[in-house]
Amino acid sequence: MHGTKQLASQIAYWYEIENVVNNTKFEIPSISGINQIDLNNRQLLDYRAIIINYITMRNQCLKEILFYKRYKQCFITYHTVLYDKPFKCCSYIVSYNANNIVYYGRIIVFYKYKDDYFAFIQKYTAYKKKISDYLELPDKVVDKLNQTYPLMELSNDYEIVPVENFRHKCVSVQFEDIFCLSEIRVDFEHD
Question: 68 FRET partner, CA 20 to 30 A, in 2, 33, 81, 179?
């Protein structure tokens, strides 16, 4: 306060300022699985035997595993091909790192084992041709174009990927019997 006059007005003024400026504290959402499903769910019928085989090869106990249709990491939500709500998002195609190589895959289902989350993924493989084979471009842009927009085929190979290996969600555009994939990225310009 300043001085001894109009103390009530001064108190009310600073109380009002504090309430206007005071930020509401909130907690950033932690990682979590959403829409839990059972391994015996009919939606997993086509994949059940494969999933069990891959989990057994990783020496993980099936009784300790929880399966999910979606996975939320801070402000990013990933979906699976099993997610069946109206207006569903197509964020089930992702790029991920394994041994410093970028791979692409479709997420079939997420699961939690102990405190770690994993994704059971159907892998994409590189197509024999590249997107630059269909275009006439200067040599300077060909490598970057092929890297940014790889042509991929959906394979019959599967893999279990820790979710911390995810790079980005991807956009898929079908082209004949193959897919042109591209990562959804937000790169910030810097000096």
Answer: 179
CB–CB of 183/168 below 8 Å?
yes
Structure tokens given for 31? 């990682």
| Contact partners, residue 138, CB within 8 Å, separation at least 6 | none
Rounded CA Rg of the chain = 24
Residue closest to 144 by CA, chosen among 154, 130, 134: 130
In angstroms, the CA 51 to CA 70 distance is 17
Main-chain phi, psi angles of 104, to 5 degrees? -130, 150
Architecture of domain 29-183: Roll (2.30)
Helix (H, G, I), strand (E, B) or coil at 188: coil
